[in-house]
Amino acid sequence: MKRHHSLATGVAVATLHVCFGNELKKFVSSVNELTPDAVQVLIAADKLEKNLVKMAVADAEDSDDGGKALIQEMIPFEAEAVISDLVKSWVRTRVERLREWVDRNLQQEIWNPQANQERVAPSGVETLRVIDETLEAFFLLPIPMHPALLPELMNGLDRCMQSYILNVQSGCGSPSTLTPAMPALTSCAAGTKHGVFKKKEKPNTVQQKNLHFSDVDSTDPFGLPQLCVRINTLHVIRKQLDVLEKRTILQLRDSGCVVDDDDDNVPNRLGRSFELSISACVQGIKQLSEAAAYKVVFRDLSHVFWDYLYVGNVSSSRIEPFLQELDLVLEFISSTVHDRVRTRVITDVMKASFEGILLILLAGDPPRAFSVQDAATVEEDFKFHVDLFWSDGHGLQADLIDKHSVNIKGILHLLHTDTESLITQFHLLIEDNYNPSGKTGKTMLPLPPTTGHWSPTEPNTVLRVLCHRNDKAATKFIKKNYNLPKKL
């Protein structure tokens, strides 16, 4: 053939390439989805093209242009690009199906702690299962470019899981929405407070409520049982996402795409798997735990806490009823929430109840008032409160309890302080913060703003102790300087 044409082999190869290319175009146009047969044909076409190009180059080695003109006439099959497009379409289809599945199952989820032994939402378990199966199916695809196309799949799965997680925590509330609104400052009408309550015949009795946490109320998707299930679900998801990431790296290695020496570099090259979902889990557990804590303290137990504790007479409305019911709540949490997040939830309950005590002492509504003598009773109640969470060493760590007790202990010190000393301390704080020393004695003191950061060295905190002080000296001081309305 060389006698008839100097590049006979090259011409024959180019002709074969064109003919096969035309047939391949017809085949590709008929392929609508990724199938093993389609991938096999495309991989074979890619190998054929590479061999044909090698033959053409070898045949034209002695030609003037080295066979460049001939090679340029061979329009590439682009088989790898076709495979890549088919895989991307496969990924988009799988991700869209998962997204629809997540939305549908979330609408049916009732967050029942008795649904399974792990006390997690079936929808969460199924979402993890579908993601796992999708990854397995991806690695079973007979393609040579798993590492290049895996990030797109992982990103799609990550966003689906993130959507699920955000829905799990959506609408659960927050400390700011579950805490009672801060009432306006008022002064205590010394010597008449208890008479008012007697006149209205408001007994210091506890309204009884039966807390049946084992009964799931489908009308309240954010009851304590449901919140516990939501917390468990996010914890399990967070843990399983790490497992899926490690399994993905192993599958890459087993598929022959990664050699053993590159194992340590795989996470860096692929990027952090499920980064959005993991971050959402961490934030979601935090939000759900706080919501559960504040809902328990300020909603579920309001009848023995916010609406009862120290209302009227301090000695006849003490903390014992609240602690009795709170103990039942803690038992339920301990038996329901996963042990790896249980301490966090119980800690949040403690923090919420401690914050509630501060609000009752400094911003209690309905009206409360405290004498210096009441301070010992309140302090004893707080000791009982702390003991519940300490639980003879079987509960929270002592240093953790002490850390969150600091503010209350500071306020208890103010409750023990006599009125004249409190007034002196308040004057000093006002001078340090507002410097009104140049004003006349008849001018009323500036009203320090409510910051919510309660502290013995914060002017508004000391002022509130004076407003809740049940004696004539405090009432006279408040009236002279602020003329606040009296509690009724």
From TrEMBL:
Residues 39-182 form the MHD1 domain. InterPro entries: Munc13_1 (IPR014770), Munc13_dom-2 (IPR014772), PATROL1_C (IPR057984), unc-13_homologue (IPR008528). Residues 316-426 form the MHD2 domain. This is MHD2 domain-containing protein. It comes from Cuscuta campestris.
